[in-house]
Each structure stands twice: as C-alpha cells, then as structure tokens.
Amino acid sequence: xxxxxxxxxxxxxxxxxxxxxxxxxxxxxxxxxxxxxxxxxxxxxxxxxxxxxxxxxxxxxxxxxxxxxxxxxxxxxxxxxxxxxxxxxxxxxxxxxxxxxxxxxxxxxxxxxxxxxxxxxxxxxxxxxxxxxxxxxxxxxxxxxxxxxxxxxxxxxxxxxxxxxxxxxxxxxxxxxxxxxxxxxxxxxxxxxxxxxxxxxxxxxxxxxxxxxxx
Length: 215
Ligand SMILES: [Zn+2]
Hints:
By secondary structure, the chain is of the alpha/beta class.
C-alpha cells in the first residue's frame, strides 16, 4: 500500500503515520524531517536548504522531488510507503505522482486529519523541548510548567524556535492556503479519507483503519 497523509500542525499526523507504518509495513517518508536533517549537512544541498530556511522561503518543488526520489529508491520492494505531507503544493502533484508511478508505487489513498485552527494553536503552544537532549514534552502531560528542568538530563526546557505565535500562524496559513488545495485534488480523485483529529490518538487511528478498509 502506498498512501499520503496530510494534516495541519498539531493534528498528530506524524504519530498516526508512524502507527500506520507499523500496521501495514510502510516506510514513513517525512519530507519536513528529511529537509531538517539535510540542512545540518555541509553538502551544497545542505547549505542551500539552510539558507532557504533562514530566509523562511519554501523549498523549490524540483528539489523536493529529487530528494523524494533518492529516499524512495532506498525503500525495499516488500514495503509500501506513507508520504507525510508530500505533495504539499499544487505544483508538486504532477511530478510526485509521475515519480511514484515510475517507482511502481502509485498513490492509492490520501488521508486528511482535520483539526480546528484554535486547537492546532493550543496544541502547538503546549509543545516544549529540552535544549540539551532534545527530548519532547507537552505541558500538562509530561511536565506541569515550562520552568521545570528536563527529567532526563537536567537541561533547560524551551519552546521550539518557530513555535512562537507568529511562527505558528505563518505555518498554519501556509497549510490552509497551499496544502489544502492539494488535498482537494485528492478528494476529486475520490481517494481521500477525512478523519476528525480532535480526539485521542487511538480513536483517530481506529477511524483511519475503518475508513481504509471501506474504499
Ligand atoms: Zn534533556
């Protein structure tokens, strides 16, 4: 099975993608994480991506497609893939679908985990990270308040750099303006599953499974 998963920040799409990967023997390909990793490399591509990130510019579609190709080629034939937020622009649909067909991995289904805007903001605002060991925390779940020290290493706990109200608003704006039109294309192709993400992880997961079995 080769599928795509979409959802706004805070929707839990990464968690669901991991669970689906385990359930159906899929390789979870998250372009956002791949680009964060590449940006730490001193290769020409790493430097370019870092520069684009610093200027808050979007990564050109052709780079996204090239990088995706590189990762797809590494997936063994007995595994499917779950693409996490790719294609994320209208311009990426055609080249990514062509690539998937060329790799004999046509996209069969697309999953959209919805979440009200205010709930996205509320969830992201609660996300913190240890500045030393990078362990993730959710305020009210793993730690009571941001003044606590990391229970693993004693490091300082802080919000992610781009989790400021401005950063959150900007990323959500991009999602609704740029990626939602892509999702609508998959609705037109009649392979879209829409799932209410404003529930617990297990409830969302069982709903996805149920709907995947239906179409
Ligand atoms: Zn720590």
